[in-house]
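Figure 2 data, in text form.
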Amino acid sequence: MAVFLRPEWFTGPDVLFEFTFAVVALLVAVYAFRVFRLTKSRNALSLGAGFLLMSVSYLSLSLMNASAIFSIAAHDGISYGILRGLAILSVLTLYTHVLLYILGLASLSCIALKDKSAKAFLLISLPSIIALLLSPNTLLLFHVLSSFFLVVISFQYWRNYAKKKQGKALMIAIAFFLLLLGRIHFIFSPNHEIFYPIGHALELLSYVLILISLARTHR
């Protein structure tokens, strides 16, 4: 499996970024589930499920990077067995991140495609999951697949803004477009380390916009 190249100065801050993404995604999920409880809207249920999966995905990624930092920092002071255990944990958390993130995007794609049925979710997600598990380059395929899902989702939110012409709709459309740009940057991060922090910065901007939109909804 290919790995990221990251600038040395970004080792550590990336963990904080990913933990922040997990918290914001969880807040969005909680709000969506509250809306579902009040309205029984299938859109709200799919939105909540999607962001909950993405929240756990980011938490897993944050744990993976934190364990990698610990392994490097304590390399000379811990046994081979512990290092091997941390390496296994790193692989497991990476696959957890990849699979849950794709499932989260699949749930959001069901909203964009206006089909929130379990059958639609399985038809969208299962081929992607199987391909990721069998791929010799899981990370590259993950970024390509997630970029495709985000194109579909972004397009739908831009269509929604074109119809409503509301500031909140525009903010959400821009947020998902920034997520798409961030994912595209990650495609190039194995070869150019600067794309790794750029991808995180774009994701941070997108989640800030989503959080602002959520706060405005509560007014």
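Caption note: The mean pLDDT is 83.
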